[in-house]
Amino acid sequence: MADARPKPLEESLPVNEITLGNVTVARIEEMHGPIGMTPQQFFPTSPEDVWKQHRDVLVPDHLDAVDNIVQVAMQTWLLRSEGRTIVIDTGVGNDKTRPAVPAWDHLSLDYLGALAAAGVAPADVDLVVNTHLHVDHVGWNTRLVDGAWVPTFPNATYLMPRADVEFWNPANNANLTGGVNENVFEDSVAPVLAAGQVQVWEGSHAIDANLTLEAAPGHTPGSSVVRLASGTDRALFVGDLIHTPLQVFAPDHNSCFCEDAGQARTTRRALLGWAADQRALVLPAHLSGHGALEIERSGDAFAVSGWAPFPRY
Ligand SMILES: [Zn+2]
Questions:
Q1: Residue 239 Cα to ligand 1 middle (Å)
Q2: Model's pTM, two decimal places?
Q3: How far, in Å, is the centroid of ligand 1 from the Cα of 308?
Q4: Å from CA of 4 to ligand 1 middle
Q5: Which of 2, 120, 229, 233 suits 95 as a labelling partner, its CA being 20 to 30 A distant?
Q6: Residue 168 burial (10 A CB sphere; 0-12, 13-18, 19+)
Q7: Whole-number mean pLDDT of the chain?
Q8: Count of other CB atoms within 10 angstroms of residue 289
Q9: CA 92 to CA 149: how far, in whole Å?
Q10: Distance between start and end Cα atoms, the chain
């Protein structure tokens, strides 16, 4: 099965930025590496033999075979479309107090340096899209300045799904203490709301002629995807619809962070099916390795047909 390992979509040297129709897409890394969970901890219903079956594709970029630990990336997608600069998801962030996730507690990473290397200063960002309001998708929404949380992107409108703005507000949810989203609303969402920079949406929302936000509930109540259709190119920024190529091969296995298991499976199958039929590039928030992939139908599931030409990590 050595030949089964998908090849990069392009033979050229890896690039940090690709062009899809009239849109450029750059991968901005916050961090990457082992997430400290075994496949069965991260994806509790996934059997060991399914991971073994797809080992050629998963090791080493998505699974550390020595330690049996899942590999992920924390990345945001930087888009330029119709003259605007757009950031999709904002990682874990610096200086945040995260009692449930010690690895993310009081980080001090050079994410803004990575953005600067792509030619973007915080003031240049016009639009921030939070696909959902989990801790690792809203972190750089804010930064700590003189002891206060302020929006990192002072000129941006932040698009947030209404269902998540309501669900993750501690005033409406008594179960946040001790969980991964403890403190998150207070330090990464409320300050942006207070600054008047949030646009709440539901159902679907046209960003521009190339990009549309659409509800994709299940992982969280407000989880969403960004659909790109520009010229003949198609792409789908899927947030946490999948974390690993294993969920392409076996789309019924949720992560342990999915709120509604049945809805998450239904949404994943529907959107992966669209991506396969459209030959759309699929860009998850946490895919390690090449960061994005193309898929095709395979029986009643899917297979990886190629990787994006982004550098592997
Ligand atoms: Zn999530």
A1: 7
A2: 0.94
A3: 22
A4: 29
A5: 120
A6: buried
A7: 94
A8: 22
A9: 14
A10: 23
